[in-house]
Specification:
By secondary structure, the chain is mostly helical. It has helices spanning 9-19, 25-45, 52-55, 58-90, 98-123, 143-178, and strands spanning 135-136, 141-142. The protein is elongated and about 65 Å long.
Length: 179
């Protein structure tokens, strides 16, 4: 049985640099903006599945949607970092395939969401589901937030991949013109 050695910090930094080589900071900002907008749309669309839709004022609902969207972006950033660290540990040579990163991100995000929804709905009672929200055992987590963390990250990664390929093709064609 092969013994797994911990990754040196310098190797991890090299892999992170390689992974984002074709992505500028403006590209990262665009991807985060897409992720934020998709989450905003999802938060608004799922409002009837929560009691707040029927019980709160428009101002409270607006604040809740913006607050939850900001939380979604932070969860997404942290999940992406953790997913990359896990996947980079497995794929020590080269950049991991985007689908492996995406699936790891989804597993982490769905796991966190199931726990967070359970804590907020059943333990802390920070919010509650309306009778329209289907739930998933064993924690009776709402299906909508679970689907949100399957669909939104995958759509965002598909868009990010398109941006990376477009940027890569543009830099290749500009190199061809310069030679």
């Amino acid at each position: 049985m092969r013994k797994v050695q911990p990754m040196r910090a310098s190797r991890l930094i090299d892999q992170l640099t390689e992974a984002f080589d074709h992505l500028s900071w403006s590209g990262v900002a665009k991807i985060l903006a897409v992720f934020g907008v998709l989450n905003l749309f999802w938060e608004v669309a799922q409002l009837p599945l929560y009691d707040i839709w029927y019980e709160a004022t428009p101002a409270v609902i607006t604040f809740a949607v913006l607050h939850c969207t900001a939380g979604d972006v932070l969860i997404g950033i942290n999940s992406a970092i953790v997913a990359y660290l896990i996947v980079a540990g497995v794929y020590r040579s080269g950049t991991p395939p985007i689908w492996v990163l995406g699936m790891t991100l989804v597993v982490i995000s769905v796991g966190y969401t199931a726990y967070s929804e359970w804590m907020n709905v059943y333990v802390w009672r920070s919010w509650s589901y309306s009778s329209l929200m289907p739930t998933v055992p064993p924690l009776m987590t709402g299906i909508s937030p679970i689907l949100q963390w399957v669909i939104v990250p995958m759509v965002t990664l598909a868009i990010a991949r398109t941006l990376l390929h477009r940027r890569s093709r543009q830099s290749s064609s500009s190199e061809d013109r310069n030679t």
